[in-house]
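Project outcomes to date are best conveyed with an example. Our students and postdoctoral researchers have been running inverse folding experiments weekly, and each run begins with a structure described purely in C-alpha cells. The record below, which covers 283 residues, was selected by the lab manager from last quarter's runs and is presented without edits.
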C-alpha cells in the first residue's frame, strides 16, 4: 500500500495570526512613513524657496538690482498670482518672473505638501498651467503655491494694475493708476522676508506643514517658522498704509481667522503684521 505524503499548509488559525502580525506592522509603520513623507516634503519646500530666491537674485542682477514685489489687488492675500485674465491677460506678482524667462520648470513655485487644487501645479480644473491665457481656471487666474511679499521693505503696499501695463505696480495709498517706481532694490532689503508658504489663515498652515511654514529672505537664506509664533509674537501695533495713526493688532488676531479663506482687505493689517514679525525675527 502506497502512502501519499501530504504537502504542508497553513491552518486557518496560522493564517489569521500571520494576517494579524502584518496588520500590526502596518499600523506601526504607517505613522512613521507619514512623518518621513512630511519631512521630505518640508525639505523639498525649503529647496523650492531657495530656488525662488536664486531666481530673484538673478532677476535683480539683470534689472538694476530691482525685483518685482506686490499683490494682484488691494488685498494682501492675493500675492500669489502668476497671471489673470480680466478681458486681457496680465502678469502681476510672480508674472514678471515668468515673462522674463526665469520659470522654465514651474514646479518649484508649488509646495509638494499642498492639497488644494488651486495652489497645486497644473491641476485641473482650477489651476491648469496656462500662464499666457489662464481663462478657465478658478476665477480665470493662474496661482503659485507661495506668497510673494505684497509690500516694500518699509511696508508700503504695492498693488499691480488691473487694467494697463502688466509690469507697472501702482501706489495702493491712493488707489489710482499712479506709477509706483522703481521696484524695491534687493540689495537694500538684507534680511527682509520675500516669499513664504501661504499663511493666510491658521488652517492654511496646518493643512500644509502642520506646525509651521517656510520663509525665504532677500539674502537668499530660508528658515522654518513655528505656527505658534503667529499667536504670541505678532507686533501689537503696525503702521498700515503709511497712516500716521497706528493700527492695533489684537493678541488673538491671527487665530481668529480660523479657516476663513475669504480674501478681504480687512485682513491686510494681520498680513502686514506677519511680514513685519518675520522681518524682525530674522534680524
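After processing, the design step wrote out the following sequence:
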Amino acid at each position: 500500500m502506497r502512502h501519499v505524503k501530504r504537502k504542508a499548509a497553513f491552518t486557518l488559525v496560522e493564517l489569521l495570526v500571520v494576517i494579524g502580525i502584518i496588520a500590526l506592522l502596518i499600523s506601526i509603520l504607517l505613522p512613521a512613513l507619514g512623518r518621513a513623507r512630511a519631512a521630505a516634503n518640508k525639505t523639498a519646500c525649503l529647496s523650492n524657496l531657495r530656488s525662488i530666491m536664486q531666481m530673484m537674485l538673478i532677476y535683480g542682477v539683470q534689472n538694476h538690482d530691482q525685483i518685482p514685489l506686490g499683490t494682484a489687488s488691494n488685498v494682501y492675500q492675493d500675492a500669489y498670482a502668476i497671471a489673470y485674465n480680466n478681458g486681457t491677460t496680465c502678469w502681476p506678482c510672480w508674472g514678471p518672473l515668468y515673462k522674463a524667462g526665469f520659470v522654465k520648470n514651474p514646479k518649484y513655485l508649488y509646495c509638494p505638501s499642498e492639497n488644494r487644487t488651486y495652489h497645486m501645479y497644473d491641476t485641473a480644473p482650477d489651476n491648469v498651467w496656462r500662464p499666457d491665457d489662464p481663462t478657465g481656471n478658478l476665477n480665470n487666474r493662474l496661482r503659485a503655491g507661495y506668497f510673494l511679499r505684497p509690500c516694500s521693505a518699509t511696508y508700503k503696499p504695492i498693488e499691480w494694475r488691473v487694467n494697463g501695463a502688466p509690469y507697472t505696480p501702482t501706489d495702493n495709498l491712493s488707489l489710482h493708476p499712479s506709477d509706483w517706481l522703481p521696484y524695491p532694490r534687493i540689495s537694500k532689503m538684507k534680511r527682509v522676508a520675500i516669499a513664504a508658504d501661504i499663511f493666510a489663515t491658521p488652517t492654511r498652515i496646518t493643512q500644509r506643514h502642520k506646525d509651521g511654514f517656510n520663509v525665504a529672505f532677500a539674502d537668499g537664506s530660508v528658515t522654518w517658522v513655528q505656527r505658534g509664533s503667529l499667536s504670541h509674537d505678532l507686533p501689537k501695533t503696525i503702521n498700515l498704509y503709511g497712516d500716521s495713526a497706528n493700527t492695533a493688532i489684537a493678541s488673538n488676531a491671527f487665530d481668529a481667522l480660523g479657516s476663513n479663506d475669504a480674501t478681504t482687505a480687512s485682513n491686510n493689517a494681520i498680513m502686514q503684521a506677519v511680514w513685519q514679525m518675520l522681518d524682525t525675527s530674522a534680524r
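Residues 40 and 112 are 9 Å apart (CA to CA). Residues 164-181 have pLDDT under 50 and may be disordered. The training component of this project remains on track.
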